[in-house]
Amino acid sequence: MLLNKILLFLFFISLPEEKIYELDSLFYYGNYLEVIKKGEEYLKEKELNKKIKEKVLILISQSYIILGDEEKGKEYFSELLKLNPKFKLDPKEYSPKIIEILEKVKREIPEEKEEYKKVIDKKIFLYPGLYQLRNNEKLKGYTLISLETTSLLSILPSYIFMKKAHADYLKEKEENKIEEKYQKYKIGYNLFYFTVITAGFTYIFHLIDIIF
C-alpha cells in the first residue's frame, strides 16, 4: 500500500514537466515568440508549482533577450528572483550574457535576498509537506504529510508489537513453535524499522526540497 502511494506520487509530480518539455522543444528550434506566448499562459495557472514556474520564467526571459528585448527579459528575471532570490544559472547550460543579465537584476534588488533567507530559516524545521503546500505543490505536500503522519503514528504500535513478539520468542520452549514465534518477531522487527526509516526519509526529502 505504501509503495503504491509512493509510485503514484512520483507519477503525478512528473506530469507538469510536460509543459517544460514543450517549451524546451520550442526554444531549441528557435520558436521564441511561441515560447513567450505559451509560457505566459502557463504562468496564469494558479496550481503551477514553484520549480516549474522557475523554469518557465527562465525560458521566457531567455527568449525576450534573444529577440533583443533585454528590458522585458529582465522583468521576468525579476519575477524569478522574487520567487527564489538565491537562484543561480549553471554556466555549463547558459551563455555568459544570460547569466550576466540575471546577476545584474540581482544587484538591483539586493534587499530581497535577506528577506528570502529569513523565510527559509523559519520554515526549515516545519512538518514535512507544509512548505510544499504553501508553494502550491499540493500533491507533493499532501503526500509528504500523509507519509510522515502514517509513519510516526505507526512507530509506537510497531515497537510494542516487536518487543512483545521478541519476548514471546525468547519464552517459547516448544521446538515446533520456536520458528513460528521467531518469524512473528522478524515481521515486527522489519515493520518497526521500516516505519522509522520512512519517517526519516520523508523528512530528509522535505528538507532537500526546501533547500534546492
Which helices and strands, and how do they pair?
Layout: H1 2-13, H2 17-28, H3 32-43, H4 50-66, H5 70-83, H6 96-108, H7 111-123, H8 130-134, H9 138-171, H10 175-211
In short:
With 212 residues, this protein is an all-alpha fold.
The H-and-E topology, N to C, reads as: HHHHHHHHHH
CATH architecture call of the largest domain: Alpha Horseshoe
How many strand elements?
A: 0
Q: Which regions contain 5 or more consecutive residues with pLDDT less than 50?
A: 1-15, 112-118
Name of the top-level CATH class of the largest domain? Mainly Alpha
Domain unit count: 2
- SS class: mainly alpha
> In DSSP terms, counting alpha (H) and pi (I) runs of 4 or more, how many helices?
10
Shape: elongated
Arithmetic mean of pLDDT: 81
Portion of residues in helices?
Answer: over 70%
Give the strand content. under 5%
Please give the radius of gyration in angstroms. 24 Å
CATH third-tier fold name of the largest domain: Serine Threonine Protein Phosphatase 5, Tetratricopeptide repeat
For the termini, the CA-CA separation is 29 Å
Largest sheet: none
Describe the fold and architecture:
80% of the residues lie in helices and 0% in strands. The chain has 212 residues and is mainly alpha-helical. The chain has two domains: 15-123, Alpha Horseshoe (Serine Threonine Protein Phosphatase 5, Tetratricopeptide repeat), CATH 1.25.40; 130-211. α1 runs antiparallel to α9. The longest helix is centred in the last third of the chain and has 37 residues, at 175-211. Residues 1-15 and 112-118 have low confidence and may be disordered.
